């Protein structure tokens, strides 16, 4: 009901909230995002880099962001300034050699403090648009920037990976640039996270220059030096938002996830019906996230941010900071493929600040960081602990089984169908505690399934052999070194081609 969730922001839209029977904080959020979408078009057309200075663009983007934050969250929006201010103080007053570590601890610590007070002091059950949502995105931006400054000012060029070279920040940002990056109106409410260099390029009018892909640092082709219009992509994404919102409001209302723990439901339905209901429930729940992230992407695109080169047919791509790929999610044939296309910018953040830098068991460390970042509900930790087991089992199966199904297209199709079904069931099973939040209902659900996915995953991870990441990297390095040695000892005309293959 509309009155079931408290709102800390403006009450101006209370009549609309009562009329459509939705919580006021959700109404405020959607209206502010629609306002940001319209403002983004104005920002691109009338505050274009060719018409005004970067200073003006920074100021306007920041002030509009603070206004939207105050409208949605009231004085709780001050937490955004406090968190950003503490981190900026650490950046300025500590040595650059250890600044990134201190920033990470301070920023994550403040976010965790806000998570704890919001959940256990003010309102445990409030699971809607709340002030910690934007703080989670700001946390990603601050910690990413701290590591990028460290890479740019401390590390040697030869010690950086190709992606780290592109992301490295070579000078300390000013306070205005820093606040604009963290709190601009395009991303203050729902993100997505972007790199500091990309944002500054957008503000200063360099956003249409050649970019580099994340993978292997390869150039993303040669682009025409013109300014493409995002209108087609924005319209397409807004239509996607409307469809997703309709699916969520119609189907998920009829199939709430909480029903899977009801005694009457479990007693009156066979197990295969329970599995089917769980899949439909989760399938109809995801469009809520699709709506939020796709609308946020459309806002950034409308402002001229997010250009990522051209497709093979010459049409511009506006997916540089996109947070999801819906079709890849729904047709994912592996746990990793699902995660790689779900909340993409968060996955990149976890990869850059944790997985690539953690010397011991990076998979477990990454899942733990993800759980801490999401909040303190026990269901989050149950989900991510389960996710570790599922990830390791999926990796083991892929490493040992997949090659046996690549001999023909028919076998490959059979493998894809089986892995799609397994992935969807594993995802649904894993994220139920993430939706239920509390320990009791989550354990009740897992018991009704006899913890079968847990047991299967642990068994597969223990029985099937998988090479460690360090061993795989060492073997790849050995192959490259052997190839280079062969090229030096044999003046073969195909030497360069062999090196490229390695």
UniProtKB/TrEMBL annotation:
Membrane topology per record: Multi-pass membrane protein
Membrane spanning residue stretches: 27-47, 59-82, 102-121, 379-397, 417-439, 445-464
Domain of life: Eukaryota
Keyword Acyltransferase: yes
Signal sequence range: none
Acyltransferase in keyword set: yes
One of the GO BP terms on file: phosphatidylcholine acyl-chain remodeling
Key words, A-Z: Acyltransferase, Endoplasmic reticulum, Membrane, Transferase, Transmembrane, Transmembrane helix
Pfam families in UniProt: MBOAT
Subcellular location, record wording: Endoplasmic reticulum membrane
GO (cellular component) term, any one: membrane
GO molecular function, a single term: acyltransferase activity
Descriptive protein name: Lysophospholipid acyltransferase 2
Source organism (scientific name): Danio rerio (Zebrafish)
Gene this protein is translated from: mboat2a
């Amino acid at each position: 009901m509309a009155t079931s969730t408290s709102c800390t922001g403006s009450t101006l839209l209370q009549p609309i909230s009562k009329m459509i029977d939705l919580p006021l904080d959700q109404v405020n959020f959607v209206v502010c995002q629609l306002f940001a979408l319209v403002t983004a078009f104005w920002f691109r057309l009338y505050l274009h880099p060719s018409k005004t200075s970067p200073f003006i663009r920074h100021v306007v983007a920041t002030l509009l962001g603070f206004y939207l934050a105050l409208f949605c969250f009231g004085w709780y929006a001050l937490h955004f300034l406090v968190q950003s201010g503490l981190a900026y103080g650490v950046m300025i007053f500590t040595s650059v050699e250890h600044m990134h570590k201190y920033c990470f601890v301070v920023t994550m610590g403040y976010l965790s403090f806000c998570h704890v007070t919001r959940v256990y002091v003010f309102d445990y059950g409030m699971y809607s648009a709340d002030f910690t949502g934007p703080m989670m995105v700001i946390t990603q931006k601050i910690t990413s920037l701290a590591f990028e400054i460290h890479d740019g000012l401390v590390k040697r060029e030869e010690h950086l990976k190709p992606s780290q070279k592109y992301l490295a920040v070579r000078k300390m940002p000013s306070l205005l640039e820093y606040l604009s990056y963290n709190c601009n109106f395009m991303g203050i409410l729902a993100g997505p996270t972007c790199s500091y260099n990309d944002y500054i390029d957008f503000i200063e009018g360099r956003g249409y220059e050649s970019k580099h892909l994340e993978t292997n640092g390869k150039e993303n082709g040669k682009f025409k030096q013109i300014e493409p219009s995002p209108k087609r992509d924005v319209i397409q994404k807004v239509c996607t938002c409307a469809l997703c919102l309709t699916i969520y409001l119609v189907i998920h209302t009829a199939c709430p996830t909480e029903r899977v723990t009801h005694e009457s439901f479990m007693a009156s339905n066979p197990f295969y019906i329970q599995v089917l209901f769980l899949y439909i429930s989760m399938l109809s729940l995801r469009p809520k996230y699709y709506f939020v992230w796709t609308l946020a992407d459309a806002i950034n695109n409308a402002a001229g941010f997010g250009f990522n080169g051209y497709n093979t047919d010459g049409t511009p791509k506006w997916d540089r900071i996109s947070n999801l790929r819906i079709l890849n999610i729904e047709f994912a044939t592996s746990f990793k493929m699902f995660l790689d296309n779900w909340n993409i910018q968060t996955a990149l953040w976890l990869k850059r600040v944790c997985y690539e830098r953690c010397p011991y068991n990076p998979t477990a460390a990454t899942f733990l960081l993800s759980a801490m970042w999401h909040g303190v509900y026990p269901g989050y930790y149950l989900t991510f602990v389960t996710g570790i087991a599922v990830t390791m089992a999926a990796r083991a199966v892929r490493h040992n089984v997949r090659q046996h199904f690549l001999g023909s297209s028919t076998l490959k199709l059979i493998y894809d169908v089986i892995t799609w079904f397994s992935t969807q069931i594993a995802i649904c099973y894993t994220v139920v505690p993430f939706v239920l939040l509390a320990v009791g209902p989550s354990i009740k659900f897992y018991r009704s399934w006899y913890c079968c996915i847990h047991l299967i995953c642990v068994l597969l991870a223990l029985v099937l052999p998988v090479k460690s990441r360090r061993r795989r990297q060492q073997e790849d390095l050995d192959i490259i070194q052997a190839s280079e040695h062969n090229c030096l000892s044999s003046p073969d005309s195909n030497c360069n081609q062999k090196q490229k293959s390695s």
